[in-house]
Design brief:
By secondary structure, this protein is of the alpha/beta class. Among the domains are: about 1-215, no CATH class; about 335-485, Histidine kinase-like ATPase, C-terminal domain (Heat Shock Protein 90), CATH 3.30.565.10. Helix content is about 45%, strand content about 20%. It has 13 helices and 21 strands. The strands form five sheets. It has a five-stranded mixed beta sheet with strand order 1-2-5-4-3. Helix 11 links the parallel strand 19 (about 555-560) and strand 20. The chain starts with a helix and ends with a helix.
């Protein structure tokens, strides 16, 4: 679009320039023609004056007074040197260099004879070697008269008539060099603009006049106007096209940004909805399976429940990891980079992975030493190292070992590595290690896994400005590492995160559960029945839940965020803003476990937030904390 506009405006500028140039050229031509006409008029009047002087000379001569002084008096100041009688008439000589009594040339004689047959002054150029004379002839009665003027026709003649012009005058009907009378510039020179040629009447003959302007007669500015218009028009077109292009690009960028923001919002909404829709049925599966596990079941029933919990938790892990990768790719991953003491994170990872190592008969060794700090999100770094350590244990051999160690790459970066003595990875499979859902053929070995942990870990490392890599020798083992930037200072752990927790309400044994899913309601009711003297009040609408909270003053409120009449966040705000319910602890129990949602409900005053599927053990600990229920 901008270039099309530039072309159109450029064409308009060219057309305008051409039109103005045409107008200027026409005006220039008119002025040159006008000056040429002035020159022709001057020549015609000169010839008329010459004829008058020759007539007066005829009167003097015929009256018997052919003296030179008398002829000078009527000759208009011409330097008459002699009057010579010939067979055809008289010759009035105005050439000072010509001696008195010089013979009349054949050309002069012929001109005198022609004057007898012509009406008016006749003329010709006579060349005698290097000398040139302009000879005029005039017939009066029975006598003919000649007036000869010496000329140097090729020498430029300065005259006011041709002040602004270059002109050549020929005593002939064409530009015959032999008949050149005079020139105001070197022969053939054309300085500017059009060349005007015309025939003008000089006595009885027609003379050829060539005229061109020495400089623009319309004026310097006017003559440059077409070029200025062209240059200015093209510059204006380029400027306007550039501005339009920038505005168009800006609009496109804004539209693209709005589209990206809308797409990002859609992704966030999709993640929230998918998290809720997938976790809700899993909440029932895992929750009731945990309740069954607490019942008095025989061995086969316990094995069935174990398989249900095992499969459900595997599916939950898969959902969590897929949603986590999707958050990273959509830019919705929330990170809190800070200086992290590496030894503390590794110690926590070892404590969490030790039961798995003991079960697999693998020795887990922490070789990190020194006060090393790296810049990372503490929870995400722990997640990556735990995943690498779990893989090193799962894909190890009996009586094998796993070492966690760190090395300084340079003054600013550290490499934290997990080395195992397992089966290793074949060379042709190493390019697929970080491919999601590709387990490199071990899915048939009975080793649990989703095939997405390494892909997620790699993305988390990159999100923390780090790098995840590996090296392996088939049959001997593998080393996976994460490289991170070092940090000088660690932030002290905050052990008082819950120092301002709401006080336990002794004697309050009522729990209000605001939830619109009957299955989830029944699960919590069954779980709380085992907690002791606890009454559960259920509400499937948010507004009714607020009224029940005001009326019954429960010891604890369990709140779902997705309700049919209002949002759970609105319910939480109403409970916190009402003095009668402001002190009641509210625990959000939701299937939307995205970090943004969890942070938002905590900022609104939630005492805790549990994600579905609910861990009944974690729920029991919340009851112990906020209701002082005896174990």
């Amino acid at each position: 679009m901008p270039w099309i506009l530039f072309v159109l405006l450029g064409c308009g500028a060219v057309a305008t320039s051409q039109v103005v140039q045409g107008v200027m050229a026409d005006q220039e031509h008119r002025l040159v023609v006008g000056h040429a006409n002035e020159g022709a008029s001057y020549l015609a009047s000169t010839m008329a004056g010459l004829a008058s002087r020759l007539t007066l000379a005829d009167q003097l001569i015929t009256s018997g007074n052919p003296r030179v002084d008398a002829l000078r008096a009527v000759g208009g100041g011409l330097p008459i040197t002699a009057v010579r009688a010939t067979t055809a008439g008289y010759v009035i000589d105005v050439d000072p260099s010509r001696a008195a009594g010089s013979p009349t040339s054949e050309a002069e004689t012929a001109l005198l004879h022609r004057s007898a047959t012509e009406h008016g002054v006749v003329s010709t150029m006579v060349a005698d070697g290097a000398d040139h004379r302009l000879v005029f002839g005039f017939a009066s009665g029975t006598s003919g008269y000649l007036q000869a003027l010496p000329l140097k026709p090729t020498t430029p003649l300065a005259t006011p008539l041709f002040r602004d012009l270059d002109g050549q005058v020929y005593a002939a009907r064409s530009a015959d060099p032999a008949q050149l009378v005079f020139t105001s510039a070197p022969l053939g020179l054309r300085r500017h603009g059009p060349v005007v040629t015309q025939l003008t009447t000089v006595g009885a003959y027609r003379w050829y006049v060539v005229v061109s302007a020495r400089h623009p007669l319309v004026g310097g500015l006017a003559s440059r106007m077409p070029r200025l218009l062209l240059i200015g028009g093209l510059l204006a077109a380029l400027l306007l096209a550039t501005v339009v292009g920038l505005l168009t690009r800006s609009q496109r960028l804004k539209a693209a940004r709005r589209a990206a923001e809308a797409a990002n919002a859609s992704k966030s909404e999709f993640l929230s909805r998918m998290s809720h829709e997938l976790r809700t049925p899993l909440n029932a599966v895992l929750g009731f399976a945990q309740l069954l596990q607490l019942d008095d079941l025989d061995e086969h029933q316990q094995e069935s429940v174990h398989q249900i919990l095992r499969g459900g938790r595997h599916l939950l892990d898969l959902i969590n990891e897929v949603l986590e990768i999707t958050r990273i790719e959509s830019g919705n991953l929330s990170l809190s980079p800070e200086p992290v003491r590496l030894s503390e994170v590794v110690r926590e990872v070892v404590e969490l992975a030790q039961p798995l190592a003991a079960h697999a008969d693998v020795t887990l060794v922490d070789e990190t030493t020194g006060d090393v700090h790296v810049r990372a999100d503490r929870q995400r770094l722990k997640q990556v190292l735990l995943n690498l350590t779990s893989n090193a244990i799962k894909y190890n051999r009996p009586h094998g070992s796993v070492r966690i160690h760190c090395d300084a790459l340079d003054e600013e970066r550290w490499r934290i590595a997990v080395t195992d003595t397992g089966i290793g990875i074949a060379a042709h499979d190493r390019s697929r290690v970080f491919t999601p859902f590709d387990r490199l053929g071990v899915e048939q070995t009975g080793i649990e896994g989703t095939g997405i942990g390494l892909s997620l870990s790699k993305r988390l490392a990159e999100a923390m400005d780090g790098e995840l890599g590996m090296a392996s020798v088939e049959g001997e083992g593998s080393t996976f590492w994460i490289e991170l930037a070092g940090s000088e200072h660690a932030i002290a752990d905050d052990d008082d995160d819950h120092a301002d927790a709401l006080p336990a309400l002794v004697g309050r044994r009522t729990v209000l559960y605001i939830e619109d899913n009957p299955t989830n309601l029944r699960l919590i009711e069954r779980a709380l029945e085992r907690a002791g003297d606890v009454d559960v009040i259920a509400s499937m609408q948010g507004s009714l839940g607020v009224e029940l909270a005001v009326e019954h003053r429960p010891a604890l409120v369990l709140l779902d965020l997705h309700l049919p009449d209002t949002s759970g966040e609105t319910v939480l705000q109403r409970l916190r803003s009402d003095p009668r319910t402001a002190a009641i602890p509210v625990v959000v129990l939701t299937a939307d476990a995205s970090p943004g949602v969890l942070d938002r409900v905590r900022s609104l005053g939630a005492a805790a937030c549990l994600s579905k599927p609910a861990d009944l053990g974690a729920l029991r600990r919340l009851l112990d904390e906020h209701m002082l229920v005896s174990s």
